[in-house]
Amino acid sequence: MFPCCFIRRSFLSSVVNVRSGASGLGATAPGSKVTAGRRLFTSQSLHRAAPLRPTQPRCRLSELPANGAWSTGRRAAGCRWSSNRSSSNADFSSKIPQFPTWEPVAESQLPPPTKVSLDLVDKLERLALVDFGNQEGVNCLEKAIRFADQLHVVNTDGVEPMDSVLEDRPLYLREDTVREGDCAEELLRLSKHIVEEYFVAPPGNIPLPTREERSAMLKHADF
Amino acid sequence: IVTHLPSSPLHNETQTLWVLRGVVGLEIHAQIHATSKLFACSRVAFCSPPNSSVAFLDASLPGTLPVLNRRCVEAAVITGLALNCTINRKSLFDRKHYFYADMPAGYQITQQRLPIAVNGSLIYSYFGGRKRNQVLSRCVRIKQIQLEQDSGKSLHDDQRSQTLIDLNRAGVGLMELVMEADMSCGDEAAAAVRELQLILQTLGTCQGNMSEGQLRVDANVSVHCPGEPLGVRTEVKNINSARYVARAIDYEIQRQKKVLENGGIIVNETRAFDSKSGTTIPMRDKEGLQDYRFMPEPNLPPLFVYEDEASVPAGVNPTQVVMIDRLKAELPELPGVRRARMVDQYKILPEHSFTLVNEDGLTEYFERVVRNTKAEPRKVIGWVMKELLGNLNQQSLKLAQSPVSPEALADLLNVLESGHISSSAAKVVFQEMWKAPEKAVEQLVKELDLGLVSDREKLLKICQKVVDTHPEQVSE
């Protein structure tokens, strides 16, 4: 039998989640249509190239991901969940706007485009051990920087920079007791080469080969 | 040659007189004396089997998060208070990125933007003056104290061209003390380090043993003409003991002066001190200037410490509260205060008080003798400085190994005070006590027949005897 039937009597609020869970288990449920719809949306967004300054709203109402839990509970036919919500709970005021408030950002509002020089590419490759590969990689980075430049339009006067969304939580201080360690065997098993319970590393940092050396290496490598 | 003349250098066609002066700033890493590490619950152990006290976080395995140790926060606050620092109520953690095999995460969690304590001072004394017997007082400003992680240990095996990595030390809490460049020579730096060592040991926040790596000193050295801008500095690393601090820094100052006097320029580089040759050698630096790409540590919200009970918000668990007031009240007697008290209380010279506080346990020894004897503290100090320390130094013994206990010395001084023996005889007895600690003072005096005779009749008999045996001298 469905365990959710029993639960419905005692936990009304969670019945919605349980039922969407049940739908996930493959039981025939009205949620299956919604789940499929969600999957459809995801694959769509993968193939569509993200526009820098879209002339039309990016997320149209019809493509909003219908939260499985909510619409299952309310048996939404299409995905017009915002209107649905307002009809079911008049007191609820969502912080999400009813209609898109997207405004294109003019080129003039942005700072001059950042050019990533070859020296900077070399430095980044050395510091972060990333491989830009070719000019396309560098172009991708420049486009990403341009996209982020839109943040300059936001007025941040008098606003403290945020480090993380958890920065208003208290930092937990723990007791000074030993609860871990004594697992040398387990840790050493993770390494291919060990010498008498020590990890083995090369004698020093191996400098990254220069650009020319790397292309030569790639040419001779067998793939 | 270091001159302390503030005059500007003399340059003219016939004679170029360089009045170069050394400028020394220290960066000291003190390992926090705690049971577990800074962000993980593994043990802080010295000389354990390799990789035996390593938590998953220390090995930077995925799925681990840092959890701050309250003891380390308290240690940093206590040290900051003892060094007259301003404790930042809010401090932040950052990541410092660089690649090295002994730091598996690829970054070190430190406090670069907003450290836990800033703007302090360290007042230290050192023996200076012409005969090096004057106690001079100096002050060096402390820029900041920050909490950071230690890295693991690398053992270089040049023969097999490999490095062996032991992560036991990775993640241990460190206090980095950054000092301003207020010092000018090796002696000052060595004295400052010694004073800091004493303070940390008194506080119990760091055991200060340089040979075990609990206290590591890096020196930033440059030379310049007073009044002119500071010269290019070099960083001197690998200073493994307190006595090498002065040697390494003095060598580097001399080296830089010679280079400049010969028309060369100083390169901003890192140099290692080689204790065998007493020189500094440039370290391989192929990577050029490091860019650490500091970034806020996203897994740790800001650290708050509270002024007093009143400033703690309601409903906060007491185990989560570090209170500055409480820690301040629990501060022990600092070395500087103790030195002043010894001079004040026992009327001894500052030089003696300096030695008393400098030697481990000597103050306690001295005070125990004073308590158990009628002799004046000023007499006691003479015996402690000359006879006791003299013997200890001669035989390279530590105070704990002294065969003469404070009570035994007190006994000897009591016998001396009562007039039973002369002071020269007492010195002989002391040496015998050293050799035979199980024998009591009175017993030794009897055995050596050093007792002063004060019986008048006896004395007359002895004098008569002397006169009788030497008639020639008497008649002269």
UniProtKB/TrEMBL annotation, chain A:
Major site of localization recorded for this protein: mitochondrion
Cell compartments where the protein resides: Mitochondrion
SUPFAM superfamilies in the cross-refs: Glu-tRNAGln amidotransferase C subunit (SSF141000)
UniProt GO BP: glutaminyl-tRNAGln biosynthesis via transamidation; mitochondrial translation; regulation of translational fidelity
Superkingdom assignment: Eukaryota
GO cellular component, one term: mitochondrion
Catalytic activity as recorded in UniProt: L-glutamyl-tRNA(Gln) + L-glutamine + ATP + H2O = L-glutaminyl-tRNA(Gln) + L-glutamate + ADP + phosphate + H(+)
Coiled coil start-end: none
Family: Belongs to the GatC family.
Summary of subunit composition and partner proteins: Subunit of the heterotrimeric GatCAB amidotransferase (AdT) complex, composed of A (QRSL1), B (GATB) and C (GATC) subunits.
Protein name: Glutamyl-tRNA(Gln) amidotransferase subunit C, mitochondrial
UniProt organism field: Pygocentrus nattereri (Red-bellied piranha)
UniProtKB/TrEMBL annotation, chain B:
Keywords: ATP-binding, Ligase, Mitochondrion, Nucleotide-binding, Protein biosynthesis
SMART domains in the cross-refs: GatB_Yqey
Subcellular location: Mitochondrion
UniProt main location, coarse: mitochondrion
Its EC number(s): 6.3.5.-
Listed InterPro entries: Asn/Gln-tRNA_amidoTrfase_suB/E, Asn/Gln-tRNA_Trfase_suB/E_cat, Asn/Gln_amidotransferase, Asn/Gln_tRNA_amidoTrase-B-like, GatB, Gln_synth/guanido_kin_cat_dom
Gene Ontology MF term list: ATP binding; glutaminyl-tRNA synthase (glutamine-hydrolyzing) activity
Asn/Gln amidotransferase domain residues: 364-476
Class of the enzyme per the UniProt entry, highest EC level: ligase
Cellular component terms per the entry's GO annotation: glutamyl-tRNA(Gln) amidotransferase complex; mitochondrion
Known catalytic reactions: L-glutamyl-tRNA(Gln) + L-glutamine + ATP + H2O = L-glutaminyl-tRNA(Gln) + L-glutamate + ADP + phosphate + H(+)
GO biological process, one term: glutaminyl-tRNAGln biosynthesis via transamidation
Family that this chain belongs to: Belongs to the GatB/GatE family. GatB subfamily.
Known partners and oligomeric status: Subunit of the heterotrimeric GatCAB amidotransferase (AdT) complex, composed of A (QRSL1), B (GATB) and C (GATC) subunits.
Job of this protein: Allows the formation of correctly charged Gln-tRNA(Gln) through the transamidation of misacylated Glu-tRNA(Gln) in the mitochondria. The reaction takes place in the presence of glutamine and ATP through an activated gamma-phospho-Glu-tRNA(Gln).
UniProt protein name: Glutamyl-tRNA(Gln) amidotransferase subunit B, mitochondrial
Species of the source: Pygocentrus nattereri
Gene behind the chain: GATB
